[in-house]
Amino acid sequence: MMDKELEKLSRLAPPAADPEARARALAAAMQAFDSAENNAAAAQGNAKGWRPSSIINWIWSPAVNKKFLAGSALATLLVIPAAGYLTFELTRNRPIVDQERIEGTVSKKEVPIPTGRPASPALSEAVTEENRSAQLSAAESAQVLQDKEQAIAARKSDLNSDDVSALLNKSGGTMSEGAKRSVASGAAVPQQQLAKPMAVAPSPAPPTESRMQVQVDPSRERFANAAANPIKNVATDPVSTFSADVDSASYSFVRRSLTGGAMPDPQSVRVEEMINYFPYDWPRPDKADQPFKATVTVMPTPWNHDTELMHVAIKGYDIAPATAPHANLVFLIDVSGSMDEPDKLPLLKSAFRLLVKRLKPDDTVSIVTYAGNAGTVLEPTRVSEKSKILSAIDRLEAGGSTGGAEGIEAAYDLAKKAFVKDGVNRVMLATDGDFNVGPSSDEDLKRIIEDKRKEGIFLTVLGFGRGNLNDSLMQTLAQNGNGSAAYIDTLAEAQKTLVEEAGSTLFPIAKDVKFQVEFNPERIAEYRLIGYETRALKREDFNNDRVDAGDIGSGHSVTAIYEITPKGSPAVMNDDLRYGAADKASAETSGSAHQGELAFVKMRYKRPGEDKSALITTPVDDRNMVATVDAAPQDVRFSVAVAAFGQKLSRTGALDAYSYQAIGDLAAASRGADPFGYRSDFLGLIRLADGLSQ
After folding, report:
1. Which domain of life is it from (predicted)?
2. Integer angstrom CA distances of residue 298 from 372, 602, 623
């Protein structure tokens, strides 16, 4: 019977709930609960006698009663973007430290490591864990709030404010206290959560142009230099012998250093290259039968009143463009990865474009690149097909290591393939530094170049960029390849070297040019050659045609300056010999026809294509002397100012008491005509050096 009654009751529909009764019952229950809570002792140390959850009831009940449900929606809109932003910041600001890379040299492809002290691993790990917790907390808060709002919206017709409070309080085990506070404060706390990890592990400052500049490691740059020439005693060592030098790389490197805000490495300063960088209006021969002419001036020394300067200058015969021989040029271009900088391969390409536009239609151009392996980019092509040549230059890209030996072999093969008899056959090597693949020692490459020059092919070396410059190797290759070396730091320098001085760069008029000066011990006690330290030759090398020396191109100027000490001057540094060597030397010249001479200048040279040298001699006597510095020719005075500047930069002791200001005054007074602004720029370099040396 009982079972049948239960079965009957189960089929009956329950009566509908009375909303008013339900509300009264719920209100009575809540009133009873609150009354009991007010009469109870404080729980868990809460002196106010409130349950922690009742705080939210106290805040949210009036809000919902006043129809401000949009507040929770606004909180959601703030929390969700804040959580996303927090995730982005955690990813972007995570410190990345490569200790091995910090200890090494910063490579050109790496973003500079911030200079601030990196966070310790423990601190970084703690910060990461804290950020991860904050991220999860914010995400949980956003999800819970969204669920609550959807439930409230579905039942708002049946629930009053107390129902809403009760529903929210059910999340006590799920919603964190931080999320509850964020609801009550309009999502102010999530902003603090974003700021907190930023304070512990701040983001690196955005890189500025100055920060992006790679610091040059001076130890990676190699310079061909030697100790400054010593003072020689004429009684024991009356003859000075050296090779001509028409290179200009040193001046360009010095300029690059000074304009970059640093004094140049003294080893990078070669005084003769600084002097010979400038064009001078020295007297020149009238015809090509005599390729150059010597001019000698003796004047007081600006930095030492007790000595004199003997200034020897020659000017090469200038070939008229219409009569210039045909040119067969091979561009040997370094496209290794280190060339991928604005002042390297891009500048190189612009420089060669200038040169191509300067050539004649019948000239020939080939292009070989090297980076690990050599490759022929352009077979010998007439300049009449200029667009084809320029297109090949434009396609060059950097990548790989620098293996230049194989490239040199390929370039000489192409030059031989397109060889022009009675013309100019020249390989033009453009690089930023070492050949670090294959035969890379200076001596190995020197032997390769020496073998190739016997075939009548000349070599020009052009250096680009900073940080990996191997000036020593550039000098070795140029000197042994019957060529010259230049350093291209700007497009203006490329214009000067490859366009304005193209004749001097491309068309040689004499090779193996040597100087030998013999001083008269009757008139001169001591002498010092200024510069040419890396071009010194033995006395017997002067007459030995098998000994290689420098070459002179069309219109080239070469200047050599000696500081000489007259006999009896208080500036004499060496004591007389005890056993009469000085008296013996004087007796040998006494009464001879050359007694009144100060010195005797000799020059040897070979014409291109010839193996036997010719001799030019010039005696120096009182007719070559001027009484004052101001009486010397303008170009002589300017070249002396450049010589003083170079010696000052290389820290030559003789110039210690001579200031940059005095050098500047001497140069400014003798600047003269300056159509290209080279001398004005030089005055600016003197001012920069003066400021940097303070």
Report:
1. Bacteria
2. 53, 17, 9
